[in-house]
Design brief:
Layout: H1 2-21, E1 27-31, E2 37-38, E3 44-49, E4 58-62, E5 68-69, E6 71-77, E7 80-85, E8 92-101, E9 107-116, H2 150-187
Parallel strand pairs: 2-9
Antiparallel strand pairs: 1-3, 3-7, 4-5, 4-8, 6-7, 8-9
């Protein structure tokens, strides 16, 4: 009879702890957004998360040649992280790598990309240097490479939760067995 109470208490505690464990911080929005094609100057990057983030959080931006673009004046306040670029980003594909420590203390990271595709500003050209092919106002299509790592992060988050659940089950089972053994020895 008492063993059933121990098992019931173990299961109740197990379900109470697993719901608290699964609430990790994640990216809710960004500017520029994932997969966005931006047709104007990009001077800063803004990342918003679903809970408070630590001030040690970082963001790095890389161009299509995997060269890091300096993000200066990175600031975190509550759920938001912002960073400024020294000069507006040139046309091309950019990858954003962010690493945060959420309010729950867990380190989380993710990646996404966006494209800057501005029309070239037309400068007056002498009539002698005018090219033979007419210019069109169409902007050439730049392929968007989606390097969104969110599903991988989600899978690793699920895997880490599963490991924690297994550890908790083992610990509660050992504790329940230990208490059952002690109670059984007292009756003898």
């Amino acid at each position: 009879m008492k063993m059933k109470r121990v098992i019931s208490a173990t299961l109740i505690l197990l379900f109470a702890f697993t719901s608290a464990v699964s609430a990790h911080t994640g990216l809710t929005s960004s500017s520029p957004a994932d997969g966005e094609i931006v047709a104007e100057d990009v001077h800063e990057i803004v990342l918003e998360f679903n809970s408070k983030i630590e001030s040690t959080s970082t963001v790095k931006v890389f161009n299509e040649n995997e060269e890091e673009i300096i993000v200066s004046n990175t600031q975190t306040s509550d759920k938001k992280m912002t960073g400024a670029f020294m000069s507006p980003l040139e046309n091309g594909t950019y990858t954003v790598n962010w690493k945060i420590i959420g309010s729950d203390g867990h380190p989380i990271e993710g990646t996404y990309s966006f494209v800057v595709n501005q029309e070239e500003s037309s400068t007056p050209v002498d009539s002698e240097e005018t090219p033979k092919t007419p210019k069109t106002s169409e902007v050439p299509a730049v392929p968007v490479e989606n390097t969104n790592e969110q599903p991988i992060e989600e899978a690793s988050r699920i895997a880490s939760n599963d490991v924690l659940v297994v550890i908790l089950i083992v610990l509660f089972t050992i504790a329940g067995g230990f208490f059952g053994w002690i109670i059984g020895r007292r009756k003898k």
